Amino acid sequence: MDALTDLAIQVLETADPLRKIELSHQAAAAWRQRAVPVLGTRRPPPRPARPALPELRRPGDMPRRRLGGEAGRIALLHALAHIELNAIDLSWDLIARFATAETPDGFFDDWVKVADEEATHHGLLSVRLNELGSAYGALPAHDGLWQAAEETAEDLLGRLSVVPLVLEARGLDVTPETVERLERAGDAGSARILHRIYTDEIGHVAAGRR
């Protein structure tokens, strides 16, 4: 029987985003039902598998995004979809890398829930991009979040400090304003998704502080 850490590693080793989402939901369901033990024997990869696209650039080389037109909204959604994909892997890597026999179940409850919700977020954003005539991978993205994770590969408290970086990258503090701007632009569909993400992320902040 695969352990929770084995299921986490399966997600990390999966490049296809849709399959990553599917495996995340399956692993989360198995853990909620307590159908799997915690510890396996494998170690997580240094970096998660990634699809061929999007092209990854340094954060400073990314174009600025504006919400003025549809192209700007697509760029925003694409950037958020990329952040959510990284957040899926950050959550599962946290579980696979730092689990011990002494780790309380509450830690896994928190981070499995986070991973499950991040997978939902990426899926919602990907569908919305498709509805707008684009797709995840159609625009460049940056690799800054995972670089921060690599620097804390042996430090649980340091890794937990990466969580605020994820939230900052999302612009969580300005999400309500962004939702309003999307609504004023007539993009109610995107606004609903960002509001859903904002609501879920409040719980993720708490998980990072426990």
Automatic annotation (TrEMBL):
<dbReference type="Pfam" id="PF04305">
    <property type="entry name" value="DUF455"/>
</dbReference>
<dbReference type="InterPro" id="IPR009078">
    <property type="entry name" value="Ferritin-like_SF"/>
</dbReference>
<protein>
    <submittedName>
        <fullName>Ferritin-like domain-containing protein</fullName>
    </submittedName>
</protein>
<feature type="region of interest" description="Disordered">
    <location>
        <begin position="39"/>
        <end position="64"/>
    </location>
</feature>
<dbReference type="InterPro" id="IPR007402">
    <property type="entry name" value="DUF455"/>
</dbReference>
<feature type="compositionally biased region" description="Basic and acidic residues">
    <location>
        <begin position="55"/>
        <end position="64"/>
    </location>
</feature>
